[in-house]
Amino acid sequence: MRRTLVIKSVGKTIGVQFKNWVSMKHIHLSYTSFPTRFRPFVKKGATFLVDINTDDCFDLTNWALKKNRSFKYRLYPTKGQDKWLTEATEFSTQVWNLAVNHLHENKKRTGKYLTYAGLDKLLTISRSQHGWWDTFPRFIYEKQLERIHKSVKAFFLGLKEKRKVSLPKRKKDNDSVSLDIRDGLFKVTGDHITINKKAIKINMHRPLPEGAKFKRAIFKKELGKWFVSIQIEEEWSNPPEQKTTGDRIGVDVGIRHFATLSTGEHITNERFFTKNEKHLAELQRLQALKKKGTYGYRRLAKLVAKVHRKIKKQRKYFHDVLSRRMVTEFSGVAVEDLNIANLMEKRKGKKIHLAKPIADVGWASWLDILEYKCLEEGVEFKKVPAAYTSQTCPQCGAVMKKELNEEVHDCSCGCRMDRDHAAAQVILNTAFSS
Ligand SMILES: [Zn+2]
What we know:
Blueprint: E1 2-6, H1 14-18, H2 25-32, E2 38-51, E3 57-76, H3 79-110, H4 116-126, H5 139-160, E4 178-182, E5 186-189, E6 192-195, E7 198-202, E8 213-222, E9 225-236, E10 248-253, E11 259-261, E12 266-267, H6 272-289, H7 295-329, E13 332-337, H8 340-350, H9 352-361, H10 363-377, E14 380-385, E15 408-410, E16 416-418, H11 419-431
Parallel strand pairs: 10-13, 13-14
Antiparallel strand pairs: 1-2, 2-3, 3-7, 3-9, 4-8, 5-6, 6-7, 8-9, 10-11, 11-12, 15-16
Helix pairs in contact: 3-4, 3-5, 6-7, 7-10, 8-9
Bound molecules: zinc ion.
Zinc ion is lined by residues 393, 395-396, 398, 411, 413, 415.
């Protein structure tokens, strides 16, 4: 039996809204699985068609998504501005390290972790020890405190849910540090970004969307050049219609191939890291021979960072192209609901050699990109539980144990095919069976 539910008042997010309705639990769950860049919310008068026997939601109207996008630009600061940015970044990192010290010391002394207010109080006491404290406004380090507080919260949540979440650590000199400024404290006018009354020249190689709502700006020096990443929030009130052209596809991500489709096609594992690994190892070997802090050491550190950046760019490009292809060709995409952090952790214990390729190919970020591209294009995206997908026969449904090194699925029903191909078909069948 189906029933329509109408939203009378609107909570902050759909998650908050549904806390009031026990029968809506199911929808709440499915909406929390939106990719991180999207925050769904409903408008007043939104309606839901719900099956009251199963809590399945069939249709909802008058809803919208909030989407975060980020735009990265090169900056051309003057000498003075460069100095200010560098010192502000350094200062904000120092505050971070100081706060992390306080956090751990306080835990040792009292057995408890500090709250945001407690952290702030201790930092105020430390003011006198730092000459810079009066030079820079509070907003320079505010975000750092927020972030530390957030990670402590995440840490406790992790304890509760038996996940491993690490506490914030001190930042070392060679860690990438940035200046994180919230909305309202910077302004973009023409080809300048103004922060703390300093108008810094910006290379506007692509325009910001008209009337964009700013969230934050992150200033960062990369290999001697300054960049700013401006994050904006877009309201997306007309989610696209469900795409009707193209088949549905099941995708199995794996170690031997980056992914295998239920059509049997293998997508080659582009191990950018492995490819560049030899080069990287050689550079790092040379770097180890140099004395820390010397010119030669710094020069090699720069080259190492360049290789890392190259790998990152190549991987991003590969992920973008592949997910674009998926949403163009297919009307529905099903993947395994892998908890990649757990997977890596689990395998670290037994088979160390497996952990690296998993981190290397970056499934997590690919699945994230794939999910939001699907959403943008109206392609149905489904995650199926990972249990047994690689153990089940796509033809007869029999479950049979397979070792990691068994490459062929060979069932007594006569179904014989590549292991990953079989898994992709199982994922497809499970996701779109009804
Ligand atoms: Zn079979």
